[in-house]
Specification:
The chain is 53% helix and 16% strand. By secondary structure, the protein is of the alpha+beta class. The strands form 3 sheets. A 4-stranded mixed beta sheet has the order 1-4-5-8, with helices on one face. It has a 4-stranded antiparallel beta sheet with strand order 2-3-7-6, covered by helices on one side. A two-stranded antiparallel sheet has the order 9-10. It binds coenzyme a persulfide.
Length: 378
């Protein structure tokens, strides 16, 4: 495994870094307060290719390797985890299409993403979170297609997505053997946006319920065969979890940088607080743990790029360790900054709130540990 960055990777990482420093970081506090990403910023992300950076070359995208994408999502996470989540949701929704879609579906989906339309991955329901197989959204066969009825919840990009990759059950009796994937469009009759969540963190990223009320989806929009949905969902999550790890490393890095800068500016008892051993210990642990999480995330991305059969388990490890690290490091950053860290005038408390969801979404860290424990054998 090679940790060096080649010149092409460096160029693209520097480009995203510039966007992060010029366009995202200065808006992060405002987005956190307003609870939305401004249209102007979304347009910048679309026109600079950030919302479509995971599109493969065969479909007109940059065709970046997973190892490069990992570095880019870390950068976005350093800028604002909410914005990173908005962009990553496009990639999450694309995996089912890549795994089981027809050439026509892939072309249609990626053309749409490249044109700036946003996507959402709609699996979770009020009664189906960790138990992904318990989906009750029903897909009833009808002439020329299916009628979808049910409610999805906690859907990233729900209020702004044009394309929705939705999981529904084609069997009346339910169960994972009936789980099927469809590509729905927000303009379809019978589709509506439900409650918009007022979240603790990643507030730039809009999250909502999606309601399907006898929503007709044509047969050609079914992704894969009937009953393939659970496997497609699991394979998708195997791919996407390393990205959550990368965003988490970005949060940890941002928190570390904020704490170090503060510790070298803040004076108490006539000296910089960075000169106190107890503060140095906190900073050393934050730096060490962030580097360790980064190394594991990069390894998971590298294994995915090499299509290693253990890459799903490694992605679960990377997601779990990096999000736990982001939580710990951001909490310590608030501690280093004291009252100023606790104030909403600084971003340290935002990093803490943003980090929390990394331990929850795309599979709780308890589910990751289950996947890891089931996946290791010697
Ligand atoms: N890739 C491909 N297939 C997989 C798979 C994977 N990673 N994991 C499981 N499967 C298949 C199994 O091979 C099995 O197939 P067969 O029945 O044909 O043998 C089937 O799926 C069921 O597997 P299993 O019995 O292990 O499923 P469980 O119901 O026990 O669930 C967990 C397994 C808990 C790991 C799964 O439900 C899960 O990941 N839950 C979390 C979901 C999640 O992340 N939700 C967050 C919202 S989505 S953003």
């Amino acid at each position: 495994m090679d940790f060096s960055i080649n010149s092409q990777q460096k160029e693209i990482v520097d480009l995203v870094k510039q966007i992060v420093d010029r366009e995202i970081r200065p808006r992060a506090i405002d987005m956190d307060r307003s609870g939305k990403i401004p249209d102007e910023l979304l347009q910048i992300l679309v026109s600079s290719g950030v919302t479509s950076m995971a599109v493969p070359a065969a479909y007109g995208g940059p065709g970046l390797g997973v190892d490069t994408l990992g570095l880019l999502y870390e950068e976005l996470g350093r800028g604002c985890a909410g914005v990173a989540t908005v962009c990553a949701a496009n990639a999450l929704a694309s995996y089912p299409v890549l795994i089981a879609g027809t050439e026509e579906q892939k072309k249609r989906f990626f053309d749409s993403v490249l044109s700036g339309r946003m996507a959402a991955f709609a699996l979770t329901e009020p009664g189906a979170g960790s138990d992904a197989g318990a989906v009750s959204c029903r897909a009833e066969k009808t002439e020329g297609g299916y009628r979808l009825t049910g409610t999805k919840c906690f859907i990233t990009n729900g209020p702004i997505a044009d394309q929705i990759v939705v999981f529904a059950n084609t069997r009346k009796t339910g169960g994972i053997r009936g789980l099927t994937v469809f590509l729905a469009d927000s303009s379809m009759e019978g589709f509506s946006i439900g409650k918009i969540e007022d979240k603790m963190g990643i507030r730039a990223s809009a999250t909502s319920e999606l309601i399907f009320d006898h929503c007709f989806v044509p047969e050609e929009n079914r992704i894969g065969r009937e009953g393939m949905g659970f496997r497609i969902a699991m394979e998708t999550l195997d791919h996407s979890r390393a990205v959550v790890g990368a965003v988490s490393v970005g949060i940890a890095q941002a928190a570390l940088e904020a704490a170090v800068i503060y510790a070298h500016q803040r004076k108490q008892f006539g000296v910089k607080v960075a000169s106190f051993e107890m503060v140095q210990q906190m900073i050393a642990d934050m730096a060490m743990e962030t580097e360790a999480a980064r190394a594991l995330v990069q390894k998971a991305c590298w294994m995915q790029e090499k299509e290693d059969p253990q890459s799903g388990v490694m992605a679960a490890m990377a997601k779990c360790l990096a999000s736990d690290t982001a939580m710990k490091v951001s909490t310590t950053a608030v501690q280093v900054m004291g009252g100023n860290g606790y104030s909403k005038e600084n971003q340290a408390e935002k990093y803490m709130r943003d980090a929390k969801v990394m331990q929850i979404y795309e599979g709780t860290n308890q589910i990751q540990r289950l996947v890891i424990a089931n996946g290791v054998s010697y």
